Each structure stands twice: as structure tokens, then as C-alpha cells.
Amino acid sequence: MFWTRDGEILVNEVAPRPHNSGHHTIDSAHTSQFEQHLRGICNMPLGSTTSKTPVAIMLNLLGEPGHKGPVSYQGVDECLALEGVNIHLYGKSQTSPFRKMGHVTITGNTPEEAIKKADFVKKNLKVIST
What's the predicted TM-score (pTM) here? Predict the structure, then answer.
């Protein structure tokens, strides 16, 4: 949505569902966007959306260029060995270049700490084909 200087509201997209830009809330908020959505549509009290961690970063996990076919993941163990790295795979059996296969939430106490972990994940976690 956009609010113009003339006070007009322009709607670009309406998606009455949780959006992938908030997937980090699974690991970073007391009530995730998914739980909050269900509470709202079921007329239940809404939960606290306060953060459980000072910093959260979400990375999309995409199929690597040049890989198409049965999916395989490289670097999972190395990434999961880092505290605050949570890998969420979507269960898709086939990958292709740039296909969204999951996401990774990285939490940390400082932006620098979280960015360092995110850089490690970007370098080491790969979605390839077998």
C-alpha cells in the first residue's frame, strides 16, 4: 500500500495470508505471523509479537544455477552447528535454478553477529541436484 502526498491510499496487492517476508517470526517472535493469523481468523486473543532476540535475519534458500532435478542439500550440518541458525525446508523433492526451497532464520545479539552467521550460511548452504 502507498499513501500519496495528496492523502490518497493506493493498493498494490492484497494477500490475506501470512507473507514470506515475515517467516523469520517463527524463530524470532513470541507469536509467529502464522499463529497470529490463525488466532485472528478463529476470533482468539492475539498473542505478543515482541521479539525473543535482538536481531533476526531471514534468507531465502534457492536452487543453485545449473541444478535441476532431485534435490540435495550441501552444508546443512555446518550451518546447524552455529547457534541461532534455523533451517526451514519446504519438502520439495525437485529443485531448479532459483526455485524457493526453504528459508533460513538467523538470530543474534548484535547486527554484526547475525550478519557474520548469515554470510557463512550464504557461502556454505547450497541447494543442488543429485
Answer: 0.81
